[in-house]
């Protein structure tokens, strides 16, 4: 029996949760099947070599994350008075930032977000943008770090809308 985990260097992203693994049960079965690991052998590995089982779960998690992150083009991160919109290409990461200079507005609420939509050009709303070059081999790690900080993957409608509003 060969396992990919024998040459695995360690968890790059994060282990999938039990719920995520449950949802990807068939994909995990396929992952084990590629390694010619049967259900009985998997049960044996879990009991007799728990560290190998852990490495297999980590490797599978990294493969899933890698597949997801490679497809990401846009991210959004909302906080009480700031909004960060990211557009990610193969070599650049662009940011559109919005900061509200009002303590009574919380853009994570429907009321606060509506206020922002209606007052985008208000003096208390600061729009800014920046762009940085990213290394191809660090692209997915950069995206993952943003997700770990609370960013959500999106289709980019809000980024594209705000990009048109920038001076």
User: Can you tell me the overall shape?
Assistant: elongated
Q: What's the N-to-C terminus distance?
A: 61 Å
Percent range of helical residues: 40-55%
Question: Spans of 5+ residues with little confidence (pLDDT < 50)?
Answer: none
Bin the strand percentage: 15-25%
Radius of gyration: 21 Å
What class, by secondary structure content? alpha+beta
The major pleated sheet works out as: 5 strands, antiparallel
Q: Which sequence of SSEs, written as H and E, runs from N to C?
A: HHHHEEEHEHEH
Organism: Gangjinia marincola
Protein name: DUF6495 family protein
Give a written overview of the molecule.
Helix 4 (50-71) packs across helix 6. Strand 2 and strand 3 (92-100) form a beta hairpin. The mean pLDDT is 90. This protein folds into 2 domains: 4-71, no CATH class; 74-165, no CATH class. The chain has a 5-stranded antiparallel β-sheet, sandwiched between helices. With 167 residues, it is of the alpha+beta class. 46% of the residues lie in helices and 20% in strands.
């Amino acid at each position: 029996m060969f396992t990919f985990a024998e040459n695995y260097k360690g968890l790059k992203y994060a282990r999938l949760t039990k719920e995520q693994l449950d949802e990807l049960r068939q994909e995990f079965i396929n992952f084990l099947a590629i390694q010619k690991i049967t259900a009985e052998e998997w049960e044996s590995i879990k009991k007799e070599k728990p560290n190998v089982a852990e490495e297999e779960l980590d490797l599978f998690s990294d493969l899933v994350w890698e597949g997801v992150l490679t497809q990401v083009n846009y991210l959004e991160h909302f906080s009480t008075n700031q909004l960060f919109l990211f557009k990610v290409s193969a070599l650049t990461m662009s940011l559109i930032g919005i900061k509200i200079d009002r303590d009574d507005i919380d853009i994570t609420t429907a009321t606060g977000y509506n206020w922002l939509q209606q007052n985008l050009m208000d003096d208390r709303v600061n729009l800014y943008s920046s762009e940085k070059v990213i290394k191809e081999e660090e692209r997915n790690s950069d995206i993952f770090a943003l997700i770990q900080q609370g960013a959500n993957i999106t289709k980019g409608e809000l980024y594209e809308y705000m990009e048109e509003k920038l001076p």
